[in-house]
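## Example record

The block below lists the input lines for one assembly entry, exactly as stored, with component labels intact.
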Amino acid sequence: MLQLRDLPTQEVLQRFAQRYPAADVTAIASFLMLLRVATDLSVALDACLSKHDLLQGRWWVLILLMRETDLTSTPSVLAEKLGVTRATMTGLLDGLEQGGLVQRISVPEDRRSVKIKLTAAGQAKLDAVMPDYYTRLRLCMQGLSEQQRNDLQAILGVIDHGMSAWDFNQSI
Amino acid sequence: MLQLRDLPTQEVLQRFAQRYPAADVTAIASFLMLLRVATDLSVALDACLSKHDLLQGRWWVLILLMRETDLTSTPSVLAEKLGVTRATMTGLLDGLEQGGLVQRISVPEDRRSVKIKLTAAGQAKLDAVMPDYYTRLRLCMQGLSEQQRNDLQAILGVIDHGMSAWDFNQSI
DNA sequence: TTGACATAATTAGCTAGCTAACTATAATGA
DNA sequence: TCATTATAGTTAGCTAGCTAATTATGTCAA
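Predicted structure tokens for the full assembly:
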């Protein structure tokens, strides 16, 4: 995503706003900082997972499976929940199956389909990773009050809602 | 980054927190929503730029060049400011130079180095893209009060600062 | 001055995601 | 019924980023 280390100064933003009247300086500053912090978090997460021989994509799949009461799902459902294509999911599952963390089980009722099940090794991997991840995340967020956490979620909700305006205009 | 469409319910979070005592439920929920919204914004930005035959990486380079009063920089400085490797920057500049949006100019004083200059066509490209981008961004953020924009930036600042704790623990 | 090191940019080859095309199976309606 | 369409999963090939190695040039201390 965006790794921009060098956020624009107020002076630069003003200069851009002068050339482009559509600019909303505080909107831009907030947007850039949002992208920057989110990217930094994602990179830090990658670093944490790599110490457990995992990559984000595969790790999210394990988590999605653990959410299911029977530890089971299908490639299409997993792909949709993770927001990747089914082709990508095939690759993620190949890697996980090769590592013994998930198991492909054929489905007699619908022979097109496959069940994906979290194995004991997969659960064990999560049991190793999650405490590490949760601990880091807690430390990282501990400077935020409950009020600020609520505020953050509310603000992000507004932005998320506002994105329909962005998409609407894609027809220009 | 994270495209997780399916954020965990409170019930799922509680279940995970029971298994993993290190879990801080509101921290996790805030974190996931932050990654999700940021990713959605980044994807929307990609869609906007692609209509102008641009990709994020190349576009950020153009912006970094426009920030300079002489519209000029070097590959290393651009790479550092954008947070990519110099190898990646070489590729970005190749694409931009081929499209005539930037120009490589040799530097007699230090023959290892190259100056990169935004061309008139590059400036024209920005003049076409930026109003579109700024307009979408404004619409997207218009639901946020000035107070909320300030809150957001303050909160992100706290998280960014908290990430030193994350990194500190990487030595585990 | 010259050998060791540092720096700027590039090239080569890897990876994880993508799209598009394909195979196999299931569902549907004239 | 059976031709059409939809669905599940996979494969093949593309892209943008990465790391590591390479080339060329500059710097500095013995």
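Residues 55, 57, 84-85, 87-88, 91-92, 110-113 of chain B lie near DNA strand D (CB under 10 Å from a C1'). The longest strand of chain B covers residues 102-106.
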